[in-house]
Amino acid sequence: MKNYLMKKQYGLGLLAILVLLVSPMSLLVSHIDLLGDVSFEEGLFYTLLTDSAGSQGFLITLLVLSLLVWRKRPSTQNLLANGVQLGVILLIGFAAKTGLKIMTESPRPYTELLSHQLLIPQPEHFYKLNSTQKAEVIDGISTQVSQWRTRHWQGEKDYSFPSGHTIFVAICIAFFGGLFVQSREYGLAAALMLWGLGVAYSRLWLGMHRPIDLVGSIVFVSAVYLLVPQFHTLSEKILLKLPILTHK
């Protein structure tokens, strides 16, 4: 058990730091005005950040991080084991996200604004509407809210908890960040952490999540990362059956 935890220490340590850095963001939420003016530069910046961890760009992010790890030329066994581990964690994370949203039924912050503007009776009412009606309600506030925000509202009309973007960020920080720290590439680990914090804040800025959504997502990933093994034994067995793949 001790050896198992030792192998996980870097990833878990980075997730602990991430929670400590994300938690104070609750103090910043009150300063975010969803009705405020947004410059082109500001809107583009937060959109690129959030898209890098969303359906539009998460594969590119995974590719870039994978290439950074691959440039170190890891052994075939480590490459296979790490790939299986990452795949399992991502699968569990994304599948559980959908289930948790249905279970918690937590309205997104922007639905509170829609309620305050009398477009819906209360935030929960938004989720009783069909897709067309939801889109029409969001359109009803488009003259007051920047398109940089409403375009994301139109794209994500599901529940708030947990944050799928933050789940992806936490997985990347635990997995790739742990590998960077293990190989003493502290600069890359720090850059990855800054990116993760930027994505987390972008979710607040867009009105998509609350701080508790972010913290809960990180805690959830911490549990998944702790429980999912590293599959070195499995990768060794696979390589023995596939002699065409050789070890370094």
From TrEMBL:
UniProt signal peptide: none
Catalysed reactions listed for this entry: di-trans,octa-cis-undecaprenyl diphosphate + H2O = di-trans,octa-cis-undecaprenyl phosphate + phosphate + H(+)
Residues covered by the Phosphatidic acid phosphatase type 2/haloperoxidase domain: 84-229
Enzyme Commission no: 3.6.1.27
Transmembrane helix is among the record's keywords: yes
Transmembrane annotation, as ranges: 54-70, 159-181, 188-206, 212-228
This protein's UniProt keywords: Membrane, Transmembrane, Transmembrane helix
Top-level taxon in the UniProt lineage: Bacteria
Designated name of the protein: undecaprenyl-diphosphate phosphatase
Organism (species): Vibrio variabilis
